[in-house]
Structures are given as C-alpha cells and as structure tokens.
Amino acid sequence: MVETNTQHQPNKDDTVVFLTRHGARIDSDDHRWLAKCSHNRANDPHLSPAGEIGAVELAQKMKELQTTEDGWKMLHIVSSPYIRCIETAHAVAQALNASIKVEPGIAEVNSSRHPNFLDAVELKQKFPSIDTSYIPALNREELSVEYSDGACAQRSANAARIVTERLEVEGRPILFVGHGASCLGIAGEFGQGGYVGYTSFSKFVREGDNWKCVTFGDVSHLSDRQTSLDSAW
Fold first, then answer.
1. What is the pLDDT of residue 10?
2. Taking a C-beta distance cutoff of 8 angstroms, is the pair 107, 81 a contact?
3. Which of 11, 46, 72, 96 has its CA at a distance of 20 to 30 angstroms from the CA of residue 26?
C-alpha cells in the first residue's frame, strides 16, 4: 500500500475519484465453475465466496466515507460490464443507494473481435441498480482486439478521462470498478503508476489541472488483506 498526503481534505469544488478492482474470481477456486453456470461466457466468471466478502467490505468502507467525509452524499459508480465487476459495484450501490453506469471502455483486456459480456439492459434484469440511460465513452463495437495489458491500460485511461470530464460537472465523487489492466490505466490517468489488488481502495483528488493521489491500493478494510496484495500484478 502506498499513501501520500493522507491529511488532505478536499473541499466541495474538488473532484474526487475512487478506484477499485473487482473481488476474487470464482475460476481461481473452482475450475468447473462454467459447467455449473447457465451461460457459456468463459471469460466472464463471477465472484468467489471470498470475492463476495471483499465486495461487502469495500461497500462498508465506502459507506463509512459517505457518512464521515464532508461534501458528498451521492456517488457515481462506473463499472466494467464483466460480471465480477458488476457484482462488486452492486454491493457498493446497494450500500449507498446508488446506480451503476456500465462502461465497456474500462473492460478487461479485449482478446476477441466479439467481446462476450452482457450489455446494460441484460445486466439490469439481475442488477436493478444498473442505469440503462448512461451513454458510455466506448461501446462494445468500438473495442479493438488487444494483445497486452498496456493496450488495455491506454484504452481504459482514455475512457476514464472522458467519463470524468462528463461527470465531474455534477460535483459527485466517481468510483471506477475495473480489472487489473484497466485499473492500471485508470490509476495512470490520475497520476499513479502500478497495479491494485482485489477490492482495494484508491483515492485521487483534482487540484487545479493536476491530480493528487491520496491513497493507493489500501487494503486495511479487508479481512483477507494478503489475497488482495498478492493479486496486485
């Protein structure tokens, strides 16, 4: 965990961005998970039981911030469309009574010409907090085939910049929920290099034309901190 300027208290004119990675994946624990599912999206595993716990603990962390930090009561939640991210975002959305904006621009490394994730309308059938009126920075059809974390990171950084420019005028903090490579890019867009672990917590604050990293990769809210730290690559 890296922390810088932890005493900084943003005023109401500051834009605040939070960043987290999805919780632990079921395919790490159960190699037969897909045979037990009602779909055939092999690259779209849901959270493991441990991942679900991490998502709830992240939600509790965000709820505490909502009640203790001055200047915000509502939160924009922007999530990758993959189920593991949506489930993580959903835990936070339930705790904060917020909606989820589905953003393909911060999805996992795209290795297919036809990325196999659900769209917002399909996701809303299971997750009522999905905001189907949200217009993403990048649509599924605009995603190019990628061969590296770096390509995904660059695409995700660009998407995060567009999303932030659109949403910050409303004065609410923004929580991005992504993957290893997409979080790498999002963090880079806000001035911090490096990967983050499962359901970790990072915070960035705009100061004029620049961004300041307040906390990066914090796992103090998690009961299983080591798994999150080990996943940060």
1. 40
2. yes
3. 96
